[in-house]
Amino acid sequence: MKDYMAILNLAENENDIRALTTNRPIASVPIGSRYRVIDFMLSNLVNAGIGNVGIFTESNSRSLADHLGTGKPWDLNRKNDGLFLFNHGLCNLMYTDSKLIKNNMEYIYRSKSKDVILCSSYMVCNMDFTDVIRSHEDSDADITVVYTHTKNADKEFSNCFTLDIDPATKELRGAGKNIGIGPEADVCMEIFLMTKERLTDFIYKSTSLTSLTNFYNLIFDQIGSLKFNTYRFEGYVSCINTVSSYFKSNMDMLEPDVSTELFRSNIRPIFTKIKDEPPTIYIKGCRVGHSLIADGCRIEGTVTDSLLGRYVDVEEGAVVKNSIILQNVRIHKNARLSHVIIDKNVDIDENTELKGNEFFPLVIEKRNLLR
Amino acid sequence: MIQKNMVALILAGGQGSRLGAMTKKTAKPAVPFGGKYRIIDFALSNCSNSGIDTVGILTQYKPQQLSTHIGIGTPWDLDRVHGGVTILPPYMSEAGGDWYSGTANAVYQNLTFLDQYNPKYVLILSGDHIYKMDYRKMLAAHTAAGAKATIAVIDVPIEEASRFGIMNTDSDGRIVSFEEKPREPKSTLASMGIYIFTYADLKKYLREDSLNHSSDNDFGKNIIPSMLSAGEKLIAYRFDGYWKDVGTVESFWEANMDLLKADNEVKLFQNDWKLYTVTGSIPSQYIGPDASLKDCLISEGCVIMGEVEHSVIFPGVTVGANSRVVDSIVMEGCTIEENVIVNKSILLEGVTVKANNAVGDGAGIAVIEEGRVLSGGGFMK
C-alpha cells in the first residue's frame, strides 16, 4: 500500500438542509446521538492508517473547528502530518472549492505522500479504505471513483452525481446528476483516489476557468481520456444533504444491523470528540424503548424510537417519540414531541406539543446564545 | 525557574485489601466507580478544578492499571508544559532502594521531585476517597491563619469517631491534640487525610522523621504529632460535603448506590465541578424496545434489552432480554445474557453470565471476579 494523504472537501450543497446548517457546515451537524457527520469519514481514513488529512471548508466553521480541535480524538495531533484545517474566512461568492485548495497548494506540495484520497464528509458510512486502495492499486487506473448502488435514488442522494457504469466491464461511461427520476441508480460517493500530480493538474485547470463549476465536474470531464476504476461500496451509506435524509439516517441507526455495522466494529471504530459527561440517569417512572441515548441525560419521562444527544433532560410526564434531540436540550413536564428535530440548547416549555411527520420532520433551530 | 505556589501529591500506593477481589489486580485508587470513573478521578478532578497544575502520584501496589489510566494526564488537563502529572514509584539509588515504608516516607523519598518546583505549599491527598472539594479554599484558610499545616476534617457521628483520626481543636480551629482511633473520642472532627503543609516546614519534619528509626513514617502517627509537640501552629479546616472512604465492599457498594438518590451529594451532574476520566470512543447506549429502567445509571456503549433497577452500569455492558439486574454494580464490558437474574452483586470487568443463571442471593453482596464466565445454569453466589 502506498502512502496516501487525504483531502476532505466540505464544499457540500446545503440548500436542502439549511435549518440545521445556519450555524455550521454539514460536516459538524450532530448525528447518531453523539457524533458529528464528519466523524465517519475522518474515522474511515484514520482506520486505514492515513495520518495526513487536510480539511477544506467554507465559512461558518466555528463549530467544526471546535469539534476537531487539534485532531486528538482521531489520533491526528501529530508532529509530522496530522490534521490541517483550511477555511475561507469570509464567504466569498467568487470562491470555488478548487480555488480554496489552490490557495493552500503549498500544503499539498509539502506532503510526503504521492497519492491522495479526495472525499466529502456527508456520506455517512463505515468503510474499509484499505480495500478501496487495494482496488485502486490493482487496477492501474488514473482515477478510482467509489460509488454505491441504491434503490432509493428518488428519495435520497438528491443532487448527487450518478454514474453510468457498464454492468459487464464496470467501466465508467458517464456521469450526471441525480434528480430523483427513478429509484435505482449508481451514486457517486464523492471519493476519488489519484496521484497528487493529477489532483494539482485538476486544481490549476479548474481555477483557470472563470465559471463556478464544481470541482468534481472537472474530474468527470475526463471520462474517455483518463482511465477510471470504479469501486462499488456494498455497505450502508446515507448522504446527509436534506432534512429528510438526515432524519432517516438517524432513525436507521436505531436498527441493530445498521448500528452494528456503523458503530460496533472492533477494528474500525468511529471516533469523536470526548466530553466529560456523567453516565445517564434513568429515574423511576421513566419509560424508554428502542432509542439511542448519549451520556449525561436525565430521563424521567417517556422516550421511544428516538435519539438523544448529551445532556438532555426529559422531565416527568414528557413524551418524546420518533424524534432527534440534540445536545443540551431540556424538555419540560408534559411536553409532547413527535417527529421533531430539536437543535442544541433549546428549552421546550411545559405542556408544549410539537408534531412533524416522517417525510417532513419539524426542525426547531438552535437557540442563538448571542441574542 | 518558575516557582509553583502549590504542588499536590496523591498517595496512591495502597492495596485496599478489604476490597477483596476488586484489588486483586489493581491498586485501590484504580478501582472503577460510579458508572465510568475510577476512584482516583475524584482527587485528580478536584486538583484540576482547583487550578492545581502540578501533581505527583505516589504508586506502589500493583500500579499498572493506574499508570495506564493516568497516562500523561490529558483528561484532567494535566498534560502541561511546566508541571503536569508525574507518576512517582519507589526507585533505586546508589545506596540501594527501598519501598515506601509509610505515607511520610513516600513523600520524603520524593523531595527532589518537589524541589524541582520549589513550591510554597504542598497538598497531600489520598487517592481513594470519594468527595468534591475546592482546595483553593483550604489553602486560603491555611495562609490566613499563617499555619504550618492545615488538616481537612469532617464532622462524624460520635459513635463512629473511634474509627478515625480525631482532631481536638480550640475555638479558633487550632489543633490542640490529635488522637488516632481513640477509644473515647473527645471530639467528632475526623481527619480526611488531606493536608496542606508550608513546604519549608514539611521538609524539616520529614528529614527529622527519616532519622528516627522507631518511626512508622506516617503523617497521622508521626509527622502531625511531632509538629504538635513542637508547638507549631496546625489548624483544622472543616469540610461539610459528601466524603467517603470506600474501604470495604459494603461501603463501596453503598457509595455507588448513593449516586442513584435523587439529590445525591456527589452531584455527578454538576457542571461547574465536572469529574474527568478516560473516555473511549464508543457509541451511545441503546435501550431496546422492551427494556425497563428504574433508578439506574447507565454508561455509553451499553445495550440494554432487559430490566435494570437500582443499579450502576459501566460502559459496554450488555443486558439480554428477560434478564433482571437489581441493586448491583456491573463493570465495563460485562455480558449478561438472556433470562439471567443479577441481585445485589458486583460484577467486575469482563464478567459473562450465560443465559438462565442467577447471581447473588440479595442478602450479602456477591462479588464476581474479573473475566469470569458463569455458566452451567442455576444459582451462583
Topology:
The complex is a heterodimer of chains A (371) and B (381).
Chain A: E1 4-9, H1 18-21, E2 30-31, E3 35-36, H2 37-47, E4 52-57, H3 62-68, E5 82-87, H4 97-103, H5 105-110, E6 115-119, E7 123-124, H6 129-139, E8 143-150, E9 161-165, E10 172-177, E11 185-195, H7 196-208, H8 215-220, E12 228-233, E13 238-239, H9 243-252, H10 256-263, E14 280-282, E15 287-289, E16 291-293, E17 298-299, E18 302-304, E19 307-308, E20 313-314, E21 319-321, E22 324-325, E23 330-331, E24 336-338, E25 340-342, E26 347-348, E27 353-355, E28 362-364
Parallel strand pairs in A: 1-4, 1-6, 4-5, 8-12, 14-17, 15-18, 16-19, 17-20, 18-21, 19-22, 20-23, 21-24, 22-25, 23-26, 24-27, 25-28
Antiparallel strand pairs in A: 2-3, 6-11, 7-13, 8-11, 9-10
Helix pairs in contact in A: 4-7
Chain B: E1 6-11, E2 32-33, E3 37-38, H1 40-49, E4 54-58, H2 64-70, E5 84-88, E6 92-93, E7 96-97, H3 103-108, H4 111-117, E8 121-126, E9 129-131, H5 135-145, E10 149-155, E11 165-169, E12 175-180, E13 189-198, H6 199-211, H7 219-229, E14 234-238, E15 243-245, H8 249-258, E16 285-287, E17 292-298, E18 303-304, E19 307-313, E20 318-319, E21 324-326, E22 329-330, E23 335-336, E24 341-343, E25 345-347, E26 352-353, E27 357-359, E28 366-368, E29 373-374, E30 378-380
Can you offer a commentary on this structure?
The complex is a heterodimer of chains A (about 375) and B (about 375). Chain A has 10 helices and 28 strands. Chain A is of the alpha/beta class and about 375 residues long. In chain A, the strands form 7 sheets. Chain A has a 7-stranded mixed beta sheet, with helices on both faces. A 5-stranded parallel beta sheet of chain A has the order 14-17-20-23-26, with no helix packed on it. In chain A, about 50% of the residues are buried. The mean pLDDT of chain A is about 90. With about 375 residues, chain B is α/β, with parallel strands linked by helices. Chain B contains 8 helices and 30 strands. In chain B, the strands form 6 sheets. In chain B, strands 1, 4, 5, 8, 10, 11, 12, 13 and 14 form a 9-stranded mixed beta sheet that branches. In chain B, strands 17, 19, 21, 22, 24, 25, 27, 28 and 30 form a 9-stranded parallel beta sheet that branches. At the A-B interface, β14, β16, β17 and β19 of A face β16, β17 and β19 of B. β14 of chain A pairs antiparallel with β17 of chain B.
